[in-house]
């Protein structure tokens, strides 16, 4: 149960008292140990009078309607609009953060728009969105707000989508994903060196989250890796990553390889060449992954979905615009009747490429 202290502060679970009058946050594997009034690395969870509170409940960095493909999710209600929002802060410290103005923000009061979970669910319904995405920063740190919003959405028949790095501990992970209908998880690299030195985190908890979502929940799962030149783009690492995905998650989990652009504290790197993205995609396909895509770069063939059995084009994409649609009403290939993995309507949505900022 969520216990409110003020309009934007709630008492939370997943913590315990330790020595020296500190408390330990148990929400994510960082296990921040906080003195009185101290905030965790995520900034939004704080030791207030020897209890853990979330200080950003009901406040958002803004609201927008996006194509679901922008999350990116290519196999979950294609062509439909998704009502998107996030808060501020993050429990990782990625030097390359592409949303650093939100995830690293400390100006909570000036940044935030206010909305209750019920208001978000009703806004999504009124705008004709089939789903709500918890995105822009990681919903792990606004766990209570995301779950309450997902509950409100479910009452209205609206799906919930998590866009996350998957850096979360066992109990809150189980609570969270029972309310999520789809997730795109950032698998940022496939070495402990990268995770520790560049994100301030560890690889193994993320792999545990991926296996949990795939095998212990009904949540539809897709993966994204931002390809950074010289950091996680070696053929050996991509071979190891895609082989692990095939062996541990199976061939039907789509993989997205996205282009990096210099940002935040990694301005010394060059943007990702398209050829690096295409190589990563081809490695995934060669290793038996059925669906692999590139992102933040324009290549219609590498954005589109093909039947893994007969090779025919199933869903044509040009950026986020859908063109060809060759799935039958049950989500099977029209040419050979092989099922295409995903959550599909008999007909695709027609939202297109537009993103629309909205107010609640």
Keywords, please?
alpha/beta; nine-stranded mixed beta sheet; four-stranded antiparallel beta sheet; TIM Barrel; 24% strand; 360 residues; 2 domains
Can you give the mean pLDDT? 93
In which range does the helix fraction lie? 25-40%
CATH class of the largest domain: Alpha Beta
Largest sheet: 9 strands, mixed
Tell me the name of the CATH homologous superfamily of the largest domain: Aldolase class I
Please identify, by name, the CATH architecture of the largest domain: Alpha-Beta Barrel
In CATH, the topology of the largest domain is named TIM Barrel
Number of helical elements = 10
* Radius of gyration, whole Å: 20 Å
User: Spatial order of the strands in the main sheet?
Assistant: 17-16-15-14-13-12-10-9-21
Shape from CA axes?
Answer: globular
Domain tally:
2
Beta-strand portion reads 15-25%
- The number of distinct β-strands equals 21
Task: State the separation between the terminal residues, measured CA to CA.
Answer: 25 Å
Q: Give the uncertain stretches in residue-range form.
A: none
SS content category: alpha/beta
